[in-house]
Recover the amino acids of this structure.
């Protein structure tokens, strides 16, 4: 069974703004969504957060840089069948999300704390 990938309102709003500036953001998110739907879990697991949250780096061809200068996408694995995309940013905006920020993103998205 395929994994259901949810784009939270906050993620969708941020993606829309980034997409105007970097058209490749939409393509990179689509590629990540397809990988998540296949059951893959790319990226680095945040440690000490208390939730199954990953951060993945994606290239930004629109900006002329690879993964190191690309997008950071944070996603939450709710269960084996549900993944929520929580946040997207460029390297210059944010490189790490704190435990508090993750808790706030989950609360805003309607996920109860586990």
């Amino acid at each position: 069974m395929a994994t259901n990938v949810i784009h939270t309102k906050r993620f969708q709003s941020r993606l829309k703004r980034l997409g105007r500036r970097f058209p490749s953001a939409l393509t990179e998110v689509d590629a990540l969504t397809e990988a998540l739907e296949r059951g893959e879990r790319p990226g680095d697991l945040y440690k000490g957060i208390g939730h199954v949250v990953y951060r993945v780096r994606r290239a930004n061809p629109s900006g002329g840089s690879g993964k190191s200068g690309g997008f950071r996408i944070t996603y939450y694995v709710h269960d084996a069948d549900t993944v929520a995309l929580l946040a997207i940013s460029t390297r210059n905006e944010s490189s790490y999300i704190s435990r508090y920020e993750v808790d706030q993103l989950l609360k805003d998205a309607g996920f109860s704390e586990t």
Summary: The domain at 4-109 is CATH 3.30.2310 (YaeB-like fold). Residues 24-37 form the longest helix (14 residues).
